[in-house]
Write a structure and sequence with these properties.
The structure is a single chain. The chain has about 140 residues and is mainly β. The protein has a single domain, classed as Immunoglobulin-like. It is built from 1 helix and 10 strands, in the order αββββββββββ. Strands 1, 2, 3, 4, 5, 6, 7, 8, 9 and 10 form a 10-stranded mixed beta sheet that branches. β9 and β10 form a beta hairpin. The longest helix has 18 residues. The chain is globular, with a radius of gyration of 19 Å. The relative contact order is 0.26.
């Protein structure tokens, strides 16, 4: 009987752990069309349902030689783009890669990106978490 109770308890704990939502989630990923050999762009949203802040520290795709993270800013009527090493994702909050703000530059595309294509990404966080997502190539952001 003790073995049965212990087994039932272990199973309940395992199911509770599996049912708990992951603290980090990616959504709304998209990219614009681009020619092979040029640079593309990537956008997505990141939700952090956890109690600890995190940060995006790297992004990879097999369709580009590298992915850089950039921020855009406006100063004196001039828009500028700056490479960043990390993008903060606050605890209980979110971060966005979108037009006019943080974005991912897909440097040295290995093939053309056409409307409807999918661009696979792996996003690495300071915590060590790695999430996979696809960017859908489109002329604009997905409708909500």
């Amino acid at each position: 009987m003790k073995l049965f109770v212990a087994s039932a308890f272990a199973l309940a704990v395992a199911q509770a752990v599996q049912a708990a939502p992951a603290p980090l989630a990616l959504s709304g990923g998209w990219s614009r069309p681009a020619a092979a050999g040029t640079n593309g762009v990537g956008y997505l949203s990141i939700a952090n349902r956890g109690a600890k802040p995190d940060a995006v520290v790297a992004v990879e795709t097999p369709l580009a030689s590298r992915v850089d993270m950039h921020s855009m800013s406006m100063a004196g009527g001039v828009m500028s783009m700056q490479k960043v090493d990390r993008v903060a994702v606050p605890a209980g909050g979110q971060a966005a890669f979108g037009p006019g703000g943080h974005h991912m530059m897909l440097m040295g595309l290995t093939r053309a990106l056409k409307v409807g294509d999918k661009v696979p990404l792996t996003v690495t966080f300071a915590s060590g978490a790695k999430l996979k997502a696809d960017l859908t190539v489109a002329l604009g952001p997905p409708s909500s």
